[in-house]
Design goal:
Blueprint lengths: L4 H21 L3 H6 L5 H18 L1 H8 L4 H21 L3 H13 L2 H12 L3 H28 L3 H19 L18 H32 L6 H28 L2 H18 L6 H16 L1 H12 L3 H49 L17
Helix pairs in contact: 1-7, 1-8, 1-9, 3-6, 3-15, 4-15, 5-6, 5-7, 5-9, 7-8, 7-15, 8-9, 8-11, 8-14, 10-12, 10-14, 10-15, 11-12, 11-13, 12-13, 12-14, 12-15, 14-15
Length: 382
């Protein structure tokens, strides 16, 4: 990573924080809302969907802002709005304020702004995006654990305030190193529109498959062997997947740069889909552990490969990255819905098969891009 070491470390810390702090709340969102309202189901659904709503609604805005403002300024916005969102969650006594805080979480634009920051400071697109994903994996690993301890000890508000303050501090430390990065140049009208479509479909399907699997694996596990698959074991298996992602991501970065992002994305989609599909076959615990490790390692390559591919295929870098982030967000909504549709007729195993099918469908969709191959990250000047 180029740039001053303190700025680079602060950027990594910022990515960890904007991932970990929302995930500290997520497993306990329903319980939090239930303490505030007599109608928790409706408010919980609104709070769950809120970040996706603003993320998708503001996708075109980031393309325009990145052409006018420096990357350092955008990073300060992300840190300030994320920190304010945390503070609102900490003091919320009515679910409407909680929903507003979650809307602001999506409006912070961390998914787009931080991707641009890691791309700008990485030696290559593969290296930059995989460092970002490593920090995200670390946040996914520690966020729910910290949230669990804070919720159990009734210090959740303090955790949110601390997380918000650290988020603002990290943005303040990271921004100066990025002020020299000029605004992104505007893209030629219509450039890259055709090549980006199959990639966005693949990204959406990969995200949908992963989120469908995470949503319905606990139901499958407890139905398969309730005595073995305790909540602690299920949570431990989930953590193992993120640990595998954290460890394997440097190899994904080298592969994305050495080969090309599209083949790397296809490999990650097919591999994850096959690992999802093997679970309902009912292997023993040791095989389940191996499959969860494989799923984590394979899924880890999807987002960096998608961002690197859209970096070269989209109508300008900002638009490509913003659309890639939007496709992943859509997948987070589509996956659990698709799994839920097959849950009643086919049971939890059917939901896991749906997860596998979504992931493999993304790889099949990449065949549409085969006739117009996307160059490797090295072939395009930063």
């Amino acid at each position: 990573m180029s740039g001053p070491a303190p700025g680079a470390a602060a950027l990594l810390a910022l990515q960890v924080l904007v991932t970990a702090v929302p995930l500290a709340l997520l497993p306990f969102l329903g319980l939090t809302v239930a303490r505030m309202s007599a109608s928790p189901a409706i408010w919980t659904a609104l709070a769950l969907a809120a970040p996706a709503v603003t993320t998708l609604a503001l996708t075109p805005v980031w393309t325009r802002l990145a052409h006018r403002a420096s990357l350092g300024s955008l990073l300060l916005w992300t840190g300030a709005v994320s920190g304010l969102s945390c503070a609102m969650i900490a003091v919320a006594e009515h679910p409407a304020l909680l929903v507003l805080a979650r809307l602001m979480q999506g409006a912070a634009g961390g998914g787009v702004v931080l991707a641009l920051a890691f791309r700008a400071t990485g030696r290559t697109s593969g290296a930059g995006f995989t460092r970002m994903q490593q920090a995200s994996a670390a946040g996914c690993l520690v966020g729910p654990v910290l949230g669990g301890f804070a919720f159990q000890s009734d210090h959740f508000g303090a955790l949110m305030l601390l997380g918000g303050g650290l988020t603002v501090l990290a943005a303040l430390l990271a921004a100066p190193a990025l002020r020299a990065v000029p605004p992104e140049p505007a893209a030629a009208e219509g450039a890259g529109r055709m090549r980006g479509g199959p990639l966005l479909f693949a990204g959406m399907c990969g995200s949908a498959g992963a989120f469908a699997f995470v949503a319905y694996f606990p139901a499958w596990a407890t139905a398969h062997d309730p005595a073995l698959y305790t909540p602690g074991l299920i949570g431990g298996l989930h953590s193992l997947s993120w640990l595998a992602a954290l460890l394997i991501l440097p190899a994904w970065g080298r592969g994305i740069d050495a080969v090309a992002p599209v083949p790397a994305l296809a490999l990650a989609l097919v591999g994850a889909g096959l690992a999802f599909a093997a679970i309902p076959l009912g292997p023993g615990l040791s095989a389940i552990v191996a499959l969860r490790l494989a799923q984590g390692g394979l899924y880890a390559g999807q987002a960096p490969a998608l961002f690197a591919a859209m970096d070269t295929a989209g109508p300008g870098r900002v638009a490509g990255i913003a659309r890639a982030r939007a496709s992943l967000t859509v997948g987070q909504l589509v996956g659990p819905l698709a799994g839920g549709l097959v849950l009643a007729p086919f049971g939890p195993g059917g939901a896991l098969w749906a997860a596998a099918g979504l992931s493999i469908a993304g790889a099949v969709g990449l065949l549409a891009a085969h006739t117009r191959p996307i160059p490797s990250a090295r072939s395009r000047a930063r």
